[in-house]
Every structure is written in C-alpha cells, then in structure tokens.
Amino acid sequence: MRVLIAGSRDASPKSLMIAKWLGSLVAKRGHTLINGCARGVDWHALQGAIGSGGIIEAYLPSQATGWFNKCLGLPIRIIPAGRNFVGRTIRMGEIAELIIIIEPRLRSNGVCGTCHLARFANAKPVYVINPRSYGIGLDEELERGLGVFERAGARIVGINDVVRIL
To answer: Across-strand partners of 74?
Structure first.
C-alpha cells in the first residue's frame, strides 16, 4: 500500500518524533512511503522509513531548490511532480492509497500546503491525527487546519487508531 504522511513544516518536536516513528512503521509493515521531501513532518517520516529500510517515492516539483536538494543522493526514488508545490502535493494525494496528516496548520494568511490533501477525503482514507492523542494542545493555526480536514470529511483519530490502520 502507498502511504502518504504529511503535515506542517513547522511542527512541534513531539509531532516530528511521531512522524519519524510512523515512517518507520510504514516501512516495517512493508508499505511504500509517499513523500514530498519538505522539512518538518515530511522529512522526519522520510528519515524513519529510510532507517527501517523502507521503500520511498519522493515527489519533487521542478522549482524545488535549497532544502529539497537534501533528498538527492538518498536511497529513495525521486519522481518529478509538476512545476510547483501545490501540484506536487495534489499528485502525492492522487498516488497515495492512505493519507495520514500530522499537525496541519492553517496560517492566518491562509497558507496551508498540507490542506490541499483535504480534497481527497471523500475518495480515499484520510486520517488526521488529533494532536491531543499524544499530548499536544491546540492553538489557532492547528484548530483551523483540523477544521479544513474535518469539513472535507477526513477522520480525526488518535495515534493508536493510525497504528491499527497500518
């Protein structure tokens, strides 16, 4: 199964730890990790999967520079994915069979790259891990991000629910 783990680039240390652990679990269960090579949740899920010998497909837009160059040379399959980050995120959502979201943040300026994945909530399983299930309180950005997914029909679940699903 192709599993996408996505979330905030500015996630809390606890959320990053969860992302790395889930990336490792995806690999250990024999699934393919779909990844965007972004800093934050993506990067930590990628590191967890690599550390457990997982299969990783990394989707990079043609405008990727800087941080994204860290993915070059890693033991992963790089797949070109559109010209920009929105296109890349949508492509990953199309490819994934299961989408797991960690700490989605909708900024006051309306920016939330991960929130583009909410559009898939009625077509495939999209699970958003409730940060409270692992001890993170909700702030305004996180409340807004969770709301985007909830309104789209995604399931807000606890960390143990995701472990059972995988």
So the answer is: none
| pTM for the structure as a whole | 0.92
What are the strands, taking DSSP E only, across the chain? 2-7, 32-35, 55-60, 77-80, 98-102, 126-129, 155-157
Distance (Å, whole) CA 161 – CA 130: 10
Q: How confident is the model at residue 66 (pLDDT cuts 50, 70, 90)?
A: low
* Dihedral sign, Cα of residue 141, residue 142, residue 147, residue 153: positive
151 SS3 class: helix
SS3 152: helix
Q: Give per-residue pLDDT as tens, 77-101.
A: 888 777 788 888 888 999 999 999 9
Are the CB atoms for 142 and 108 separated by under 8 Å? Answer: no
Q: What six digits make up the tokens of 88?
A: 């890349």
Give the Cα separation of 127 and 132 in Å (integer): 14
Q: Comparing C-alpha atoms, which of 29, 26, 72 is closest to residue 49?
A: 26
Q: In what order do the strands lie in the sheet with 155-157?
A: 77-80, 55-60, 32-35, 2-7, 98-102, 126-129, 155-157
Cα 64 to Cα 37: distance, rounded to the nearest angstrom: 10
How far is Cα of residue 20 from the mean position of the Cα atoms in its chain?
A: 11
